[in-house]
């Protein structure tokens, strides 16, 4: 396996050639899908018209720039966030099942968002703060319960699955208790949907996501070192306790940001890192392939959601749940076989 | 005899369970120290305390007169390298990439492949004899090859101190002797080696300093010729034996009489 070396002054980055090729392939796929998604709508716009609209305006400029482009961008960014969140938690737990949607962090973020809607006014800022807080609280509970006499990834996953079930029940209860109009809004949102997102809604989550991605860049080297096992990680100088806290923070941040805007979208965080890892044949659970695979998966799912019962646009969460259910059954089967 | 790495009257244990009490040990600089003793006598636990994986409940372990817990993690890792038992490599990783992970304490955020790192990895692979395996995935290798890859990783860390927990386990006898000879060579180059060894004859043959442990205590320590005799074998291992001079090296050789 050969490597590519990138130099910029004192900064030296080494990339496996296969990872670079796979990443380039994923970027191309995402670009093609994005173009298709920009063309597709109530009326089909030709790619030439799309380019014109993006570059200089024209008759369909408003539809494409203000309706379709935010949705496509959101699908790409949120997909990447979910892929990263999954990769972080799968690295942390060293388990393919250790994904935020399985261990209850989506449900926790959703609880936080529900509280913001039902008890406060449900503004964008409250939703963002509410879902990040909810996700962090869920993560803290799971993390503390799984500590016992030392950290164990498998224990964290098992406890997370239980917490997920409890939070899902709590969420249903909150919705049932709410006023009818609030409950209807919350229920529609609970499926996870990108229908009708616009730029105004996206500014805050994009800024938050950027922050967490930067945090991730800073800790990624230590994170990969930690994949060698606790003992080697610590004796080569990794501050493991601090690293785990930052990983949880970055992972929750990435998940909750998406949940705040689109509701809980499952399956992407679970599957994207594993698909990316297999494509890149890289060691551990690499971040860049996970992010790119997540972006491609979510955009694909969103296109399918729009096409399936057109002109009715399904929530993208319905599509990802359907596919994700099958994948989860397969994964659980493999896990049982392994033990 | 100078020594930078010392244990002062330490008590070690996991939770409520005490493994060692009142252990004092000064690791001689530039020497090859072998820790020997029966199973569960606290050898590995002591080694873990030296590399900060375990904090003593009393007493101090210090490097250069300062408590090891007070050193910054990466700085400490530039001084002391450790090879634990039972390591599992991440899936799909190739030998060269795994060995390069030993460079972690010398790297900062973005400089993950300087010329110094490259040279250290190349030389570590050559010394451990895994150069020709460089591009092979670690999980495809035999147990002995894998063990040499991990040793290359710790060598790439380029630490003056090298602590190894039963490094010869899973190796056939030829590889065991090759590895011990390698440690002796590293010692000759000025490194300090501390290894937990199972075979008392190998320990006598290669080590300069023997530390014999039983039930969490140090029973005897010193040069092999001074400490290893039939009485010690009886006391530490409960094994009746005669001790004679090794015909090749003149070091003590234990022959059990059971």
Give the structure's gist in a few sentences.
The complex is a heterodimer of chains A (339) and B (258). By secondary structure, chain A is mostly helical.
How far from one another are the termini of chain A?
31 Å
The fraction of residues in strands of chain B falls at 25-35%
What amount of the residues of chain A lies in strands?
Answer: under 5%
Order of helices and strands of chain A: EEHHHHHHHHHHHHH
Characterize the quaternary organization of these chains: heterodimer
Most strands sheet of chain A: 2 strands, antiparallel
Give the strand line-up of the largest sheet of chain A.
1-2
Helix fraction bin of chain B? 25-40%
Number of helices of chain A: 13
Strand arrangement in the largest pleated sheet of chain B = 6-7-8-3-9-10
What does this structure look like?
The complex is a heterodimer of chains A (339) and B (258). Chain A is built from 13 helices and two strands; from the N terminus they run ββααααααααααααα. Chain A has helices at 17-39, 47-55, 61-93, 105-119, 124-147, 153-177, 180-190, 199-226, 230-235, 240-262, 268-280, 287-308, 316-338; strands at 3-8, 11-16. In chain A, strands 1-2 form a two-stranded antiparallel sheet. Chain B is built from nine helices and twelve strands. The longest helix of chain B is centred in the C-terminal third of the chain and has 16 residues, at 173-188. The A-B interface holds A 1, 5, 10-14, 149, 218, 221, 225, 227-229, 231-232, 234-239, 277, 281-284 and B 15, 51-53, 73-78, 80-82, 84, 87-94, 97-98, 101-102, 104-105, 107, 109-114, 135, 153, 157.
């Amino acid at each position: 396996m050969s490597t590519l070396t990138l130099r910029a002054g004192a900064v030296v980055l080494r990339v496996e050639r296969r990872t670079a090729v796979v990443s380039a392939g994923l970027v191309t796929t995402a670009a093609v899908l994005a173009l298709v998604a920009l063309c597709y709508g109530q009326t089909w716009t030709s790619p030439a018209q799309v380019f014109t609209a993006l570059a200089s305006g024209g008759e369909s400029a408003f539809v494409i720039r203000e309706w379709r482009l935010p949705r496509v961008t959101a699908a790409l960014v949120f997909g990447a966030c979910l892929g990263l969140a999954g990769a972080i938690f799968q690295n942390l737990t060293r388990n393919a099942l250790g994904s935020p949607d399985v261990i209850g962090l989506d449900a926790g973020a959703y609880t936080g968002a529900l509280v913001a809607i039902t008890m406060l006014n449900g503004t964008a800022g409250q939703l963002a703060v509410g879902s990040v807080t909810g996700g962090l609280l869920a993560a803290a509970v799971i993390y503390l319960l799984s500590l016992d006499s030392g950290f164990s990834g498998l224990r964290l996953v098992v406890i997370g699955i239980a917490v997920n079930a409890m939070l899902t029940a709590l969420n249903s209860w909150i919705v049932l208790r709410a006023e009818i109009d609030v409950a209807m809004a919350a229920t529609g949102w609970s499926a996870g949907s990108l229908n009708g997102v616009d730029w105004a809604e996206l500014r805050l989550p994009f800024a938050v996501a950027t922050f967490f991605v930067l945090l991730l860049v800073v800790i990624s080297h230590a994170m990969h070192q930690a994949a060698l096992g606790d003992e080697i990680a610590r004796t080569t100088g990794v501050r493991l306790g601090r690293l785990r806290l930052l990983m949880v923070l970055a992972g929750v941040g990435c998940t909750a940001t998406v949940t705040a805007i689109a509701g809980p979208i499952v399956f992407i965080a679970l599957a994207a890192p594993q698909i990316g890892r297999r494509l890149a044949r890289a060691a551990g659970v690499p971040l860049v392939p996970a992010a790119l695979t997540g972006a491609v998966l979510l955009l694909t799912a969103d296109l399918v959601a729009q096409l399936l019962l057109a002109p009715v646009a399904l929530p993208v969460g319905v599509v990802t749940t359907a596919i994700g259910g099958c994948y989860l059954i397969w994964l659980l089967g493999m896990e049982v076989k392994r033990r | 005899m100078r020594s930078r790495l010392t244990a002062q009257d330490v008590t070690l244990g996991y939770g409520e369970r005490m493994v060692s009490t009142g252990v004092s040990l000064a690791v001689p600089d530039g020497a090859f120290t072998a820790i020997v003793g029966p199973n569960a006598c606290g050898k590995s636990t002591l080694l873990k305390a030296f590399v900060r994986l375990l904090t003593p409940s009393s007493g101090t372990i210090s490097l250069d007169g300062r408590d090891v817990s007070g050193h910054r993690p990466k700085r400490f890792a530039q001084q002391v390298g450790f090879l634990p038992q039972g390591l599992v490599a991440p899936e799909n990783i190739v030998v060269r990439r795994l060995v390069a992970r030993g460079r972690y304490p010398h790297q900062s955020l973005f400089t993950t492949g300087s010329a110094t790192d490259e040279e250290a990895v190349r030389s570590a692979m050559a010394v451990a004899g895994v150069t020709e395996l460089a591009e092979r995935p670690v999980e495809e290798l035999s147990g002995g090859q894998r063990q040499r890859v991990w040793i290359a990783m710790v060598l790439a860390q380029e630490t003056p101190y090298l602590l190894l927990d039963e490094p010869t386990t899973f190796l056939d006898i030829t590889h065991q002797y090759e590895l011990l000879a390698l440690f002796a060579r590293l010692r000759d180059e000025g490194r300090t080696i501390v290894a937990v060894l199972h075979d008392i004859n190998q320990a006598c043959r290669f080590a300069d300093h023997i530390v014999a442990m039983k039930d969490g205590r140090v029973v005897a320590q010193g040069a092999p010729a001074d400490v290893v005799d039939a009485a010690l074998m009886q006391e530490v291992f409960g094994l009746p034996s005669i001790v004679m001079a090794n015909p090749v090296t003149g070091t003590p050789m234990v022959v059990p009489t059971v």
